[in-house]
Design a protein that fits this description.
By secondary structure, the chain is mainly alpha-helical. The chain has 20 helices and six strands. Strands 1, 2, 3, 4, 5 and 6 form a six-stranded parallel β-sheet that branches. It binds flavin-adenine dinucleotide. It comes from Lolliginicoccus lacisalsi.
Length: 466
């Protein structure tokens, strides 16, 4: 590219002419306050996304594919002006800032353990201006009267409602004047494959369309249907919230127009997302360790050869417990699993197989298209009993009765476990218990009644810590 063209796209007469908008988990242009802050501070903005191997590597293929599709859609909305670079943001962002003579970089804040460290390292080189976050209310804001954090959801939720959230920001592609990345010399632009096929439609446009469709046709049954995997009638917005192709504030604003128990229930679920982000931001260690250290005393079966065999059966959806197997196969096939079934399969891993929750959490993070550290690690710890506001350990999910209750006709199981398609109605949940041999389908790998007693015996070790 000739130097005259470069001059036209990147004015250089003042350092405040140019800035960077560094996209991370906010791959949208509507309701993005960062864009307003960037427009206030500089005439031109360079839109950047860094493909950081530290984050890309642990993501499974589905999440990576969804990310690429989101980036392609953002680039299209920006008329090809999204600069995607591969590498370490701690080197790349300050380098880009030097190249375009930007004196600051605009972001929405990241409160995760890795993101916090990364941003602190970038800030050693260039100031970051944080505007907004991926949450309705940013972690750290909701505190008790004495300034301490909530450890139980319901009072957090009450305060969250009282606190309220901002109205959506009025932004679009034209809020900023975007610098043409082609004019930034000496930078290797990552070429993204154009025709990736994510497991579900993603990108800002798809998020909005899906949300509008749910508001029109699904939201009024949310409360009644949300626990029923057979009905498959939740929003499925988690992948969009994961990549920030829609902001929860936008969703909350729309829900205000729906005065119903269902709309309130959905709002409450969005508060769980904020709650777990708050917990993880305050206790980053809890991404990998028990939040409640009493649970460090829980005997877990990690180093027996049998543990690996049980784990492999769980991962493959071949435990002989139909609802567990259906869930795991949905995960492997769709990269998504219904919330009720996430709880059932997690409980089975922890309390029937006596394996560490973090083994299951790691597998989920690899396969989920919506894999999100706070929701996942604390969803697992909720089930395992070691987290904030966790289910009491001694309340152990029975995979048979859970199946009968939440998949009453067995339709969900038959959808995902083809070997069981010929078994009619709710009978499908009890094939293993009735000793029925189904060709190709395994007998139960453990006896739930026996493992329940074993789990409760192990729990005595935790109680002794008190
Ligand atoms: C073991 C386990 C692991 C989980 N891992 C993840 C994960 O990696 N990523 C993820 O987004 N959610 C996770 N969840 C929470 C929940 O299962 C999903 O958010 C939900 O199933 C996504 O489907 P949906 O968008 O149709 O949800 P809806 O029921 O339509 O809910 C709307 C939104 O509210 C939020 N939400 C709902 N329930 C929860 C919850 N329990 N915790 C936090 N946020 C919630 C999500 O953002 C969701 O998209 C996990 C739950 C468990 C029990």
């Amino acid at each position: 590219m000739g130097s005259s063209e470069r001059k036209r796209t990147i004015p250089t007469h003042s350092a405040t002419e140019n800035t960077i908008v560094w996209f991370r988990r906010d791959l949208r242009l509507v309701d993005l306050p960062t864009l307003l802050a960037a427009a206030d501070s500089a005439r031109n903005a360079l839109a950047v996304f860094v493909l950081d191997p530290a984050l890309i590597k642990p993501s499974g293929v589905r999440r990576r594919t969804a990310l690429i599709a989101c980036l392609n859609s953002l680039d299209e909305a920006l008329d090809g002006r999204l600069l995607v670079v591969r590498g370490n943001p701690v080197e790349i962002i300050p380098d880009l800032a030097r190249r375009i003579e930007a004196t600051q970089v605009h972001i929405s804040s990241d409160h995760g353990p890795y993101g916090t460290r990364r941003d602190a390292a970038v800030e050693q080189h260039i100031p970051l201006v944080r505007t907004g976050s991926p949450f309705a209310i940013a972690p750290g804001r909701i505190v008790k009267d004495d300034g301490t954090a909530y450890r139980v959801f319901t009072p957090f939720y009450k305060r969250w409602l009282d606190h309220g959230w901002r109205a959506p920001a009025s932004t679009s592609a034209s809020t900023n004047s975007w610098i043409d990345p082609a004019a930034v010399t000496g930078v290797e632009r990552a070429e993204l494959p154009a025709n990736v096929k994510p497991v579900c439609p993603v990108g800002e446009h798809a998020a909005r369309e899906q949300w509008d469709e749910y508001l029109a046709n699904g939201v009024d049954q949310y409360k009644e249907h949300r626990d029923r995997p057979d009905l498959d009638d939740t929003t499925r917005m988690s992948v969009h919230l994961k990549w920030g192709t829609i902001h929860p504030r936008t969703m909350l604003a729309d829900l205000r127009d729906h005065d119903s128990d269902s709309a309130r229930e959905l709002r409450r679920q969005l508060a769980w997302r904020d709650f777990y982000a708050d917990v993880l931001a305050r206790e980053p260690r809890s991404a990998r360790h028990n939040l409640n250290p009493d649970f460090d005393r829980m005997p877990i079966s990690t180093d027996t050869p049998e543990a690996q065999v049980l784990l492999a059966a769980w991962k493959a959806g071949r435990t002989g417990y139909p609802i567990v197997d259906a869930g795991m196969r949905q995960l492997l096939h769709e990269g998504w699993m219904h919330n009720r079934v996430r709880m059932i399969v997690a409980s089975f891993l922890v309390k029937d197989l006596h394996l560490p929750w973090w083994w299951g959490a790691r597998f989920f993070m690899r396969h989920l298209v919506d894999g999100d550290l706070p929701a996942n690690q604390h969803g697992w710890q909720w089930v395992a009993g070691s987290g904030t506001d966790a289910a009491p350990y001694f309340r152990i999910f029975n995979p048979i009765t859970q199946g009968q209750r939440y998949d009453p006709q067995g339709d969900y199981v038959r959808r995902w476990v083809p070997e069981l398609r010929e078994i009619p109605g709710k009978e499908v949940h009890t094939v293993g218990q009735r000793g029925i041999e189904v060709p190709g389908y395994p007998a139960p790998i453990v006896d739930h009644a026996v493992e329940r007693r074993e789990a409760l015996a192990r729990y005595e070790h935790v109680k002794q810590a008190r």
